[in-house]
Write a sequence for this structure.
């Protein structure tokens, strides 16, 4: 599939990116607003979640109900997220309705009503959402793992902390919106069916008036490996494990991705084979690359019975450490095929592409074509992956468990 | 997007369906094997899960490891599911690798190794998977709801029952594979990039040899409304609620779908507005249509704090009952736009389309085009939806809760 990328930067710094996809009728768009969990002032953990809800409770001349009616009237499927660096708000919808949707999102971003009674409802729901994590230990262990692995504030919980949510005020949250919905640091990405000239004209009218503001980059050193156990009376032990690796800007990035794929890229990958196929230790086991702009790691999850938890962790750590001892040509080939196949499937989804080009721009300052990624994957070899693994041995493992039984790390 | 459907039926009854999608490089395929939870003999609840794992542990001349290697070597992304009627096994992959993948799946379906040591591992993992539901009350409440709502065996747990899994033997599971992997009742669906003539030729060679067998249809009457509470020490009360509605073959089917969309089609829909926006009762609330061939219902989930659980249930049931009192033209319009927008997004995913055409054929005996569905949605009106709601009032509600507190139904 030939790729056509579009790019335009408004005077205030807002970046507009697009990827045209032939033969699709839909379009997906997303605003990346620099108000992610790590960007917030101390003591406001969870504010991004409250804000992501609050701004949709009325904007411009519309109250909460009228805004919901208008958004649903366009048939848009909302997609929202809170990450370390950004709040993402966006949607997928029929291409013909894009301009009307952007109009509404300009109100939401620039002119949210931010009424105090609506704040209270949004805040309470965010508190309930954090409490509900106790019923979702799989998600909870991975949030806690990021908190333990990344140095503060990078790993700060994207869900929030109950005590900080309880003391959050509407005034404070409004200040965050004012300072963090900073258009100079905002990336807008669109993929699918759209007219770029018309879009840029509209974006200039709607968003081109703000002045430029700068943002301090976050600096932080990686935390050392450590073990944290959260006692629960649940049925399983949920294990989260993470170890440092290279960032997306590193020349060894693709070697790291192929190495993770050898470990956990499919049914034939080592973790699945050793933990699930051979030993029947658990159904759910998998590792993946997890990167921020400032630091990156390989993240692994396994959920298992208390009796099998120690063996499961031991096998996983042994497999991590065994990687640098050698990988076969066949393993590298399968890892490459798997990564390239994922790219093809991703290339056919407007939502995936809008997310990917926005993230690329933030992480790398440019958008990679799928062909470039494919070529870089193709260029990895047994030797390049082993060289990488040997000069970047896994040293410290950060481990978090939730369940009725502790493990020895 | 113009749709091109393909259809061919082998002499033994195996149905081959295809939807060609222009401009995509991927293909998705799935085999619907008549071995779903409701199709199994009494006392074997969960056997479908064991079998869905076991058949991948070696087939044809390949052992478990070799089979995994071969599948991953094609870069395929597996998709598997166990439903009431079928085990679904399939994948999405690069179009050029389809023929090789079908070759491997013929071995998996017709010549699985079914080794006893591998059975033991698959069985134990299935047991662990059921036990793990205690850590996932949201999924557990909906499984239990289907069990309570649909008459036995239709609602039988697709995860399984621990005591029945513990007594399941390799011999019994093998008998189920032999009798239920019945090609006469199997539907194969493919969507994306493929060559139908070549595919049919290959399917005939690989699957055309079996003789025709018949299957007894399942007959069962709907259970009456009832309340079930499962005590747990979790943080939330998880509420599942279901009430009878028309099946996919009914002339009122699209009126039912639009009615559900008025209730729960987006942010402006009634449940979301009443439960979340106005009262802040919970983040997670939603209703959807759930249909089997034999019976159908509207299914609703909400997760909330113990203190708010009674009010949440009361508001939800009030909203169900209030529907027939009147719906506005604007609500119907938004519901239609939302449903049509979902269709467009679905039309661009090869995986969604392969699943949809297979299910259509099983439920209706034919495949609906997206234009037909769009027209039928378009034809609904305030009057047609209200007529439907008034002549099909919600009578009995089946309710299941999991949590530290019961509710009054």
């Amino acid at each position: 599939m030939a790729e056509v990328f579009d790019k335009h930067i408004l005077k205030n710094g807002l970046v507009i990116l697009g990827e045209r996809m032939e033969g699709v009728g839909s379009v997906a768009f997303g605003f990346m607003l620099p108000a992610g969990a790590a960007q917030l002032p101390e003591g406001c953990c969870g504010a991004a979640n409250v804000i992501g809800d609050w701004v949709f409770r009325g904007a411009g001349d519309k109250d909460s109900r009228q805004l919901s009616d208008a958004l649903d009237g366009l048939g848009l499927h909302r997609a929202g997220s809170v990450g370390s660096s950004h709040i993402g708000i966006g949607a997928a919808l029929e291409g013909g309705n894009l301009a009307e949707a952007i109009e509404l999102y300009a109100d939401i971003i620039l002119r949210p009503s931010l009424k105090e009674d609506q704040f209270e409802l949004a805040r309470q729901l965010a508190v309930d959402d954090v409490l509900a994590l106790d019923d979702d230990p799989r998600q909870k262990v991975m949030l806690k793992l990021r908190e333990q692995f990344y140095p503060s504030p990078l790993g700060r919980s994207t869900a929030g902390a109950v005590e900080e949510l309880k003391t959050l005020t509407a005034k404070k949250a409004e200040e965050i919106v004012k300072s963090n919905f900073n258009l100079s640091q905002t990336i807008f990405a669109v993929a699918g069916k759209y007219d770029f000239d018309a879009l840029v004209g509209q974006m200039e009218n709607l968003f081109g008036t703000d002045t430029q503001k700068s943002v301090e980059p976050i600096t932080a050193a990686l935390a050392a490996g450590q073990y944290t156990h959260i006692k629960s009376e649940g049925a399983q032990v949920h294990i989260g494990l993470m170890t440092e690796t290279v960032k997306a800007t590193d020349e060894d990035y693709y070697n790291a991705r192929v190495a993770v794929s050898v470990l956990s890229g499919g049914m034939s990958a080592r973790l699945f084979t050793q933990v699930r196929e051979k030993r029947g230790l658990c159904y759910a086991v998998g590792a993946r690359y997890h990167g921020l702009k400032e630091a990156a790691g390989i993240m692994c999850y396994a959920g298992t019975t208390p009796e099998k938890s120690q063996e499961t962790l031991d096998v996983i750590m042994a497999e991590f450490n065994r990687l640098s001892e050698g990988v076969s040509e066949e393993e590298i080939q399968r890892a490459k095929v798997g990564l390239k196949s994922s790219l093809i499937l991703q290339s056919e989804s407007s939502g995936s592409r809008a997310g990917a080009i926005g993230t690329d721009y933030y992480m790398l300052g440019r958008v990679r074509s799928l062909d470039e990624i494919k070529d870089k994957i193709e260029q990895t070899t047994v030797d390049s992956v082993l060289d990488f693994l040997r000069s970047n041995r896994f040293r410290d493992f950060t481990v978090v468990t939730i369940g009725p039984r502790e493990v020895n790390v």
Notes: The mean pLDDT of chain B is 93. The first strand of chain B starts at residue 4 and ends at 9.
